[in-house]
Amino acid sequence: MNNFITKKVHYLRFKTFNTTKSIFLFGLFFAFVISLKEVTNLSYNNFQIFYFGSTDFWDGINPYSNWYHLNKKGNPLDLFLYLPVFSILFLPFTWFPMWLGAFVWNFFTYSIFYYSIFNLPDKFNFKDKKFIFFISCLLLFATILSMQFNPLIAALFLLAFIHFEKDNPKLAILFILLSGFTKVYGIFQLSMLIFYPKFWKNVGFTILLGIFLFFLPLIKLDFSEFLPYYQSWFDTLSGHSRMQGFYSIYRPVYAIYPDINKYATILSIGVLFSLFFLGLSKMKRFQNSFALRVQFLGILMSYTILFGLSSELHTYVIAMVGYAMWYLFTKTSKLDKILLWINFFLIAIFPVDILCPVIISKFVLGKLHLSVLIFFATWLIMVYKTFFTTQKR
């Protein structure tokens, strides 16, 4: 009898998430519970920021230079830092009562995140896709708790990759530019154009589409307001980027060298160009290898957060998805496996209050900077193994 019960428990444990439907409903349930908690507690500040950033634009108010909004509890809301195109695309979510819009927003971002993972190319088997989803799901739920844009950014990276691999570059470029013209992050994925056919044709399409999106705010703004509007966004973003308050590789550097704030942008651009030229130098290898293209994408998604100028703990959902993809398509050593779980605990477990006491997480993550330092070391290994070895899955 005991043996039968043991076998039954074992069977249920491994069959529970054996279908895409069961996994989707699992995540949707948590998205609903989290949204309900935040709406009930009037804590959905980020959605309110998005809401007012969009409605201000459509009402002819500059949300960067004229920001005077209070949250539902009567406290000042944080600044609106997204590009003008975000305000345009967010419009449908302002058609709902604010509390209902918060639910719709979280369901939307969760669903796109889920869809992008489980529609990765068939060279990712079902087990691979489950691995990516579940190793990133705590970070996913944390960013849903904050009602952030990050799940959608991660999804746009993946959707662009999916359509590059399907030989549908125009749609891939659209996803990249939508990400780039809303939160900048995704624009870096344009470096992958060199790995796919019709490079110059795709560059031309990118320029034309980029011009269209850049000037899209003119549907509401007068031409005389246009450039000052972008300038006010840039000024607001620049004033917000202080390395000591965020979780990029510059955080531990700031503790030793506070002037890093002056050079962080240049350093990040330099690292990005280094990755591009490394890819260019081995272009033929990457063009002929699906595994190497996956690894490059993983490195790029991790770079976006690790070298970001305003990376927060929950933005690491983007990095974790990329890291998981890289891990799956690399011939892993014992060190890689150990680092995977160390990073998981530091990046996904430690920031969760109910799993790790705040006093410990603040010391480990905020004072010792262990999550950033370990992930940076891991990222360097990722770069080395991808560009300077022949290892792959």
Automatic annotation (TrEMBL):
Residues of the signal peptide: none
Membrane topology is:
Multi-pass membrane protein
Q: Which GO terms describe its cellular component?
A: plasma membrane
Keyword annotations: Cell membrane, Membrane, Transferase, Transmembrane, Transmembrane helix
Localization terms from the record: Cell membrane
- Transmembrane annotation, as ranges: 20-36, 102-120, 132-159, 171-196, 203-219, 260-278, 290-307, 313-329, 338-360, 366-384
The family classification in the record reads: Belongs to the glycosyltransferase 87 family.
Official protein name in the record:
DUF2029 domain-containing protein
An example of a GO molecular function for this protein is: hexosyltransferase activity
InterPro entries in the cross-refs? GT87
Main location class: membrane
